[in-house]
Q: What sequence folds into this?
């Protein structure tokens, strides 16, 4: 049985998930959004940063998200930023399908991550990710435009937001341009930790 399609992102209180400029994609705004992630034991394990780290619900959520994911999909903008920022052993450890307009051979990294470049649309990328994921779920990793494409196409089953207590005023808004007349949401879960609020929603179609 095929798994679910989901995304999970950190978001500021005013709705931003990334800076506007690609030059700043791994800069201050991203660091502030992800500040809840860095101390966690699973984050340290996954990036081979050594022992230690916090355990608790934040750590559990990171681990659960990783373990449910059998393949990921991302846009070219996110890949271009990550290509220079990720360690040699990229943190996905699954196949990753990059939605792009350019043909490129697969890029295999140590640790089980292989990036496949898909130049015939978001549905094709998802079909390939589903086949690779098997019974596990497919994560739409980002960025914002790619997530929005899948939401508006009715291809997302659920999503989770880690709502960070920061305000940015500018950047990439998660739902800028969403087809709100066609999307319904049902809250599945709401949890909080000392650093963020975790919100999970099931996505339906009107």
A:
């Amino acid at each position: 049985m095929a798994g679910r399609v989901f995304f999970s992102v950190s978001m500021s209180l005013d709705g931003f998930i990334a800076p506007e400029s690609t030059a700043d994609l791994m800069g201050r705004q991203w660091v502030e959004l992800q500040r809840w992630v860095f101390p966690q034991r699973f984050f340290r394990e996954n990036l081979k940063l050594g022992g230690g780290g916090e355990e608790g619900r934040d750590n559990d959520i990171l681990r659960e998200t990783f373990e449910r994911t059998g393949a990921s999909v991302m846009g070219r903008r996110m890949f271009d930023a990550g290509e220079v920022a990720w360690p040699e052993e990229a943190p996905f450890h699954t196949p990753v399908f990059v939605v792009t307009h350019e043909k490129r051979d697969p890029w295999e990294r140590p640790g089980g991550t292989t990036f496949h470049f898909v130049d015939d649309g978001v549905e094709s990328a998802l079909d390939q990710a589903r086949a690779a994921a098997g019974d596990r779920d497919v994560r739409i990793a980002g960025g914002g435009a790619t997530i929005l494409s899948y939401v508006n196409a009715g291809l997302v089953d659920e999503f989770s937001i880690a709502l960070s207590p920061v305000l940015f005023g500018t950047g990439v808004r998660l739902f800028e341009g969403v087809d709100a007349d066609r999307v319904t949401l049902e809250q599945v879960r709401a949890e909080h930790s000392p650093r963020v609020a975790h919100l999970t929603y099931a996505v339906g179609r009107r």
User: Anything to note?
Assistant: The helical segments are 28-33, 41-46, 57-68, 76-85, 122-133, 144-152. Residues 5-205 form a domain with the Dihydrofolate Reductase, subunit A fold (CATH 3.40.430.10).
